Amino acid sequence: MLTIRDLALVTVAPLVLAAAGAAHPHGLSRATAMDWTQLHIALLPVFPLLTLGLLVPLWHRPRPDLAGFATAVAWTSAFTYAAFYTGLDAVAGIAAGTAVEHAAGTANVGPIKYPLYEAGESLGEVGAYALIVAVVATAVALFPKHGVRVAPGTGVLLVAGWSFTDSHIFWPRGVCTMLGFALGFALLAAGTRRSDSHRASR
């Protein structure tokens, strides 16, 4: 059975990000710069925790086989996502917000924030696509042991992952994307736990 602890571990980050997305300013201006910066500072440790939804069902030492290789790929890709998406948060979130907040009152904030957006979005794309790779690798790693039980969660996660490449957490699609991650991680955890329970009862 899926425990409350496991369910909380795999869903807490996407649910927090969904809530933050609902409160996320729709644009960066002098009026929203402080809120923009503070929100991204608060979320700095949360974005990497999105990978818990994959790491919890992969919590074992890789074996010297295809599943073990896929586990290592999933871990590496999850780390790549965490590193590069944190870069997006720092550059397009914290740095851009701080720069706009402290820009001269007569300055045009466009040339200040757009280069930071572009740099941050480049980092974020690498991170988002790495997360998709991690989802696929996780499915490959889990399939030999759990079979088609991993399919529903993987399918939901792939849709959410593709949406994540350009939705961030902005309302409405970004919030729906985070809720999709929460659902997908819960389904994946439930599928692997049910399989383990079934084997234990034999």
Detailed description of the structure:
By secondary structure, this protein is mainly alpha-helical. Helix 1 (4-23) runs antiparallel to helix 7 (173-200), helix 5 (110-146) runs antiparallel to helix 6 and helix 6 (151-167) packs antiparallel against helix 7. It has seven helices and no strands.
How are the SSEs placed, and which strands pair?
Blueprint (H helix, E strand, L loop, with lengths): L3 H20 L9 H11 L8 H4 L10 H36 L8 H37 L4 H17 L5 H28 L2
Helix pairs in contact: 1-7, 2-4, 4-5, 5-6, 6-7
- Element-by-element helix/strand order: HHHHHHH
* Distance N to C terminus: 15 Å
> Main sheet, how many strands, which sense, barrel?
none
Number of strands: 0
Shape: elongated
Radius of gyration: 19 Å
Helix proportion range: over 70%
Query: Low-confidence spans: pLDDT under 50, at least 5 residues?
Result: 197-202
What structural class should be given to the helix and strand makeup?
A: mainly alpha
Beta-strand content estimate: under 5%
Q: What is the average per-residue confidence, as pLDDT, rounded to a whole number?
A: 92
Number of helices in the DSSP assignment: 7
